[in-house]
User: Fold this.
Amino acid sequence: MRLLDRNQMALTAVVRYPLRSSMLLVAIAIGVAAVLVLTALGEGARLYVTSQFNSLGTHLLFVAPGKNEVGGLGGIAGSLGGSPRPFTLDDVRALGRSPYIATTTPMVMGTANINYQGLERGISVLGTTHTMKRLFDYELNSGRFLPELDLDNATPMCVIGDTIARELFGNAEPVGKWVRMGDRRVRVIGALSQGGQTGGHDLDEAVFVPIAFAMQIYDTESVQRMMVETTSAESMVKAKKDILDIIKARHFGHEDITVMDQGTILDTFNKIFLVLTSTLAGIAAISLAVAGTLIMNVMLVAVSQRTAEIGLLKALGARRGQIIGLFLTEATMLSLLGAVVGVLVGYACIELLRQVYPLIDFRAPDWAVISAVLMALASGLLFGIMPARRAADLDPVEALAGH
Amino acid sequence: MIRFENICRDFKVGDEIVHALKDVNQHIEAGEYASIMGPSGSGKSTLLNVLGLLDTPSSGRYWLNGRDVSELTDDELAATRQKFIGFVFQSFHLIQRMTALENVELPMVLAGVAPAERRDRASQMLCKTGLEDRMTHRPDQLSGGQRQRVAIARSIVMEPKILLADEPTGNLDSQSGKEVLDILEGLHAEGLTLILVTHDPVIGQRSHLHLRMTDGVIHAERRHQQRLPGDDSHAPA
Assistant:
């Protein structure tokens, strides 16, 4: 029997039972589309985080106190455990003198309550310097960002996020007002525009204060993190070495600091998102396996619907292998069609997502598309085997009688 | 051409064993025109199925064309059917979604014959059975007699040695039945071995070798060189 004839016969069978075929198509298409959409979600999230990091500029180093041999995100986590020797503002000042370093942006973070004329709410406090605005390019509704101050200057001033401004002041102008943070009076010097984000922090609920002031509130002499902008992308390596050398010299020979570049951090994020995306793909793939059992079911029905025809083929001299081939071709054809429909539906859903969330670049990775289609085909073949064998095993006499 | 030696065929129905064929010994020459008659359940369909290699005997030997086919595998049986045996069924067994031409092509499709040759041979056979103007019709656009003629064209397109017909006129009116029988006898006249199962005593009289079956046994064999008008001794009891 010729391959073309076999495909032709299988195709006419597919076309002849439209309800059965379309049911199967839908099941497989849903599975394939689910793989595409879920992986597009994961991939979109990854690309979003990547682009957020890249928007910071290309020559940033991240410094955290404490030594972490593993690197990656662990460096940041290391800061939570505290460090035996504080990473002080004097250290920051010393680092600023390196010829490879353009700006240093130290940070101290915490929470506090803010109070204005009896209205009170919780906020997250970010103690930092004027260079922060240079890195993130914040927009302000009114007033200005933290001015350039000496690192030790603890003048009680703050820049507040949009949500805080609206909740405490309503439509009134916040700039120039005095608010209470804990037991201190602080003057509002600026209000941020809505919707800003910095590395996952929601700036609408944040308050910026001078770093020395934050250190007073939290009674600490250690900087928690620092971002370092090097003079150029080429000086990254030298800047990194400089930072380590300077800290080592100042900390009596202890290199108790972790320096990471964007690449290291991005690698870590990419790894996390790859695992996340594969997990999503795996979950979606289960629906393909379920579709596989439906293939088996539907093909078994097909065999019993066509018992007399199978009997006839046997009487006309069809070999066992030919009958198996016919039914397997049919199952494969159905799953291939389902996969094609699923890919189309999946891409359509992803396009819809992109319209609804234009900020995020949703896209199904190629490996997900290819493996979804291959898996649909494989399940068609695998789950088609049993029904095809059943057809081939039919007794010709009984089959001709339609039993 | 065909030799049965002590052929038995037993079926298990529930707890009982039914002996559909009991120790059948029969010889059928090449070019024979044989009819098998008998009451329902007498085993004549089973005999035809065993003859056509659709069913395998429980015991005994079956020689077809000088070869012992009792021990063949399923695929060898299929190959032998393809080469030697054509089938005509009472209910035609045409595939509804295919045209007359495609139905006749089907055995050649299975045998892997090239499309152009297939079309030629199939249309020749349809001409032979008088359907040259019905080739592109589907079975549901054809009368019963025409359908059976498509089935006959299909049965001979692989040029078999033996044609087995199970009640070929059973679903037809007498006029179409006569036409179908004429075609079958014409094929026999061309040298084909024709074996048919029938209830119709007229057909039984026209055959040259007449086998009567009761309870799985061939108990009467009568040979007539020509039809004997008025002889109704073969009518079913």
Remarks:
- Helices of chain B lie at 44-51, 74-84, 100-111, 115-128, 144-156, 174-189, 201-206.
- Chain B touches chain A at residues 49, 52, 54-55, 74-75, 78-79, 81-83, 87, 89, 93, 95, 97-98, 106-107, 109-112, 154, 158 (CB under 8 Å).
